[in-house]
Design a protein that fits this description.
- The structure holds two protein chains of two kinds.
- Chain A is α+β, with helices and mostly antiparallel strands.
- Chain A has one domain (36-205): Glutaredoxin.
- In chain A, 35% of the residues lie in helices and 19% in strands.
- Chain A has an eight-stranded mixed β-sheet with strand order 1-10-9-4-5-6-2-3, with helices on both faces. Chain A has a two-stranded antiparallel ribbon with strand order 7-8.
- In chain A, helix 2 (81-95) crosses helix 6.
- Chain B is of the alpha+beta class.
- Chain B is globular and about 45 Å long.
- The chains are: A alpha+beta, B alpha+beta.
- The A-B interface holds A 76-81, 83-84, 86-88, 90-91, 120, 123-124, 127-128, 150-154, 164, 166-172, 187-194 and B 39-40, 42-43, 45-48, 77, 79, 81, 83-88, 106-107, 110, 112-114, 146-147, 149-158.
Chain lengths: 208, 168
């Protein structure tokens, strides 16, 4: 009996010690040093061809490689969620120091390529941060890319895509490593301070 | 048009409901609208408006619509999240109960201004809010740069919306 209790106590003590040692990689709950959710390796940037807001071809995986990339799917006729998210991202980027800023790209993929052509995306994004990249692709590519990233798109049927229709979409921002692996997910409403703080912490974590 | 008929019917129902409610609580609604802002449109077809509507009176009221000279149409929308998809649902009436306030804020209820035309930061846009009981209430909204709303608090606003009375 005594032996069992001692063993249990030792086990508990060990668990506490281990928990105390758990770095950010192991943390998934309240111990996480990040404001966003850790999604290491859950998603990979899709090998998908888009056109960027300057009219150039852009492969989401290849052309994003080498820098951290924050990806958001939305549409420019969205009055509230999409501008708020882009404004928060722009503010977060503005809070980074120059060295950090150079290591982060922000990519907006339109969920509504019928209306959002590269020119409109360029104009729309320039009201937040002209350095942001806007991507449009065909519907199939767009939906497949979103699906690979666990982001839903709920678009009206073609005959209903007239006038002032709206497109439902997942409102999370996913942050990918320079190798294209997912690192963090920020839910809608995560403020710019929290995003900037997370990015700084992530760079610290990798010892950069 | 069927949509217009439905809207008229909804407005009539709202007016009737408000009249009945007012009759029971022995007071009148007292509506004020404050903190109104409209965003500089990033896409010329659409922008958002935000404000707080407060009812300090003794009876409930219902916001049945918003108009402005600065846009072709103003719709009331709620942001809803279901199975990870965020979408907007139009509201034709938004109850403003006695002693309560309703916030139109990012991530929750908001105004959607269709074809807003040219708006610049610092401009003033007059919004006319139509109430079933109180009639028209006007408020001047300040046009704000799209970056003016940053600084966090979005999630907090969303939580506020949960108990401030979704319409419909």
């Amino acid at each position: 009996m005594r032996t069992t209790l001692t063993t249990a106590a030792a086990g508990a003590a060990a668990a506490v010690l281990l928990a105390g040692c758990g770095g950010p990689q192991a943390a998934t709950g309240d111990d996480s040093p990040y404001n966003g959710s850790e999604v290491q390796g859950a998603f990979t940037l899709p090998d998908a061809d888009f056109t960027d807001s300057k009219g150039e071809e852009y492969n989401l995986r290849e052309d994003s490689a080498g820098a951290y990339t924050a990806v958001f799917f939305g549409f420019t006729n969205c009055p509230d969620i999409c501008p708020t998210t882009m404004a928060d991202m722009a503010q977060a980027v503005a809070e980074l120091d120059e060295a950090e800023r150079d290591r982060l790209n922000v990519v907006f993929v339109t969920a509504d390529p019928d209306r959002d052509d590269p020119e409109l995306l360029d104009m729309w994004l320039s009201s937040f941060d002209p350095s942001f990249t806007g991507l449009s692709g065909d519907l199939e590519t767009t939906d497949a890319a979103a699906s690979e990233l666990g982001i839903s798109i709920d678009r009206p049927e073609e005959e209903d895509r007239k006038g002032d229709y709206q497109v439902g979409h997942g409102s999370q921002v996913l942050l990918f490593s320079p190798e294209g692996e997912s690192e963090l997910m920020w839910r809608y409403g995560t403020g710019p301070d929290a995003i900037a703080e997370d990015f700084g912490a992530l760079l610290d974590e990798e010892g950069a | 048009m069927p949509a217009a008929t439905a809207r008229t019917a909804a407005a009539a129902t709202a007016a009737l409901a408000a009249a009945l409610l007012a009759g029971c609580s022995g007071g009148a609604p007292e509506i004020s609208a404050t903190g109104a802002t409209v965003r500089v449109p990033s896409n010329p077809d659409v922008t958002a408006g935000y404000l707080t509507v407060e009812n300090t009176g003794g009876a409930d009221d219902i916001l049945t619509g918003v108009t402005t000279d600065a846009a072709e149409e103003v719709q009331m929308h709620a942001t809803v999240e279901e199975d990870g998809t965020t979408s907007m649902e139009q509201r034709y009436e938004v109850p403003v109960r006695a002693g309560e306030s309703v916030e139109f804020a990012t991530g929750g209820l908001h105004l959607m201004l269709m074809d807003p035309g040219e708006l610049e930061a610092g401009d003033t846009v007059r919004l006319t809010l139509s109430f079933a009981e109180s009639g028209d209430v006007t408020v001047d909204a300040e046009v704000e740069d799209v970056m003016a709303g940053t600084g966090g608090g979005g999630a907090e606003d969303m939580e506020d919306m949960d108990h401030s009375g979704h319409g419909g």
